[in-house]
Hints:
By secondary structure, this protein is an alpha/beta fold. The chain is built from three helices and eleven strands. It has a seven-stranded parallel β-sheet, with no helix packed on it. It has a four-stranded mixed β-sheet with strand order 7-9-10-11, covered by helices on one side. The longest helix has 17 residues, at 114-130. The radius of gyration is 17 Å and the shape is globular.
Amino acid sequence: ENFNEKVENCSGEYLTNCTNCEYCFMGWEGSKNNERCFYLFSSEGNYFVVGSFYPTECYQGSSVSETSKSKFSVNLLRCQDMEYCLNCQNCESCFGCVGLNRQKFCIFNKQYGEEEYWQKLDELKCLLLDRGEYGDVLPGSFSTSHFLETGAQESLGVTEADAAPLGFPLFDR
């Protein structure tokens, strides 16, 4: 049985009021033009984004709520133009940052002037591209949750044996 309701041109399950969503699951309220997303509310133009409210044009992220144009990031709130960032809120144009609030033009938590930021970011991305590392997702060691309490366990039924190959540490709950 298909559990979709009021959808147009969608594939997936548990979609409500969605348009043009491919391989998406659990999407609600005006979500449109998303692909391979899970558990999104009122989202648009995302690819492989999980557990987020109001994300726009995000790529490979989790919990990127009220965020636009983030890539390879986790736990962002009200941010834009972020890459490889973790646990940031109210930030803009940051790369490789952790735990920032109300910051702009930062690389590895160090703030730069706008012009210098774009120059250093270009150099860094070129280096990562040359080394074949740009585009890799954050490793499991960056997880802020116990592996068996994540969406992977809930949705895919992973076990402790699955944690090590993915780089997730196991620790007491």
